[in-house]
Specification:
Elements (H helix, E strand, L loop, with lengths): L4 E6 L2 E6 L10 H16 L5 E5 L15 H4 L3 H20 L4 E5 L2 E3 L1 H8 L2 E5 L3 E3 L11 H22 L3 E2 H7 L4 E3 L4 H13 L3 H15 L7 H9 L4 H12 L9
Parallel strand pairs: 2-3, 3-4, 4-6, 5-7, 6-9
Antiparallel strand pairs: 1-2, 7-8
Amino acid sequence: MTQTIRLEIAAPLAEIILDQPQRRNALSLEMWAALPRRVAEANADPHVKVILLHGGGGGVFAAGADISEFPVIYGSEAAARQTGATIARALAALEESPKPVIAAIEGACVGGGVSLAVASDIRVATATAGLGITPAKLGLVYPPGDMARLVRLVGLGAAKRLLFTGRIFSAGEALAMGLVDEIVDASCILPAARALGLDIAAQSQWSVRATKRMMRGFEAGFGPGSSEAEALFLEGFANPDFREGVSAFLGKRKPDWKVT
């Protein structure tokens, strides 16, 4: 297992940890290539319900790409195409994970760090976090998949502010534009993210995962009356968690969910 990105499991949570503190978690190609495997391992564990993504609690999430690699990994059109595909697979693994992903952001979250956060389902940040997307400072354009996710999350206006300026925005600014969902004290970032993960893990996992599937369907073009969305809605009434949830509510007890 690569030492720059680790997976730690303490069910019902799995934590994917960016672990290159000496380089402020700058994202190397090795780290991008390893991420889909870590996500797959977390999803394969039947005891894991929620995935956390963070920078190890060392004061930084990810300070951007490892620019020292650029002359090699972007040195030719073929190399750039291969590198782009590797990064796209990593982000798709987060976005398409059937289990929800929480990004816990502290300190610098720049470039590829923001891409990781936006591909996650929920973003919790410290009050001292700084978020920015900086391809304009390098004469580049943001990759298509990353830009589509960003626009869906924050809208065109905020996306243009982020990309046109390349500026590092404060956590408060990021919250106002919808780039993060919650701000917590710096000393509480991992406890807060874990508490949120445990809250999600306590719910029906059939419901949580089906909700994510439906939301992704709407992002892909489902209409409110789509047959796919309707089928998923109706499937809920036939799954064992529905029967257990109703029984627990009527019996005034904690539900014993059947779907893991």
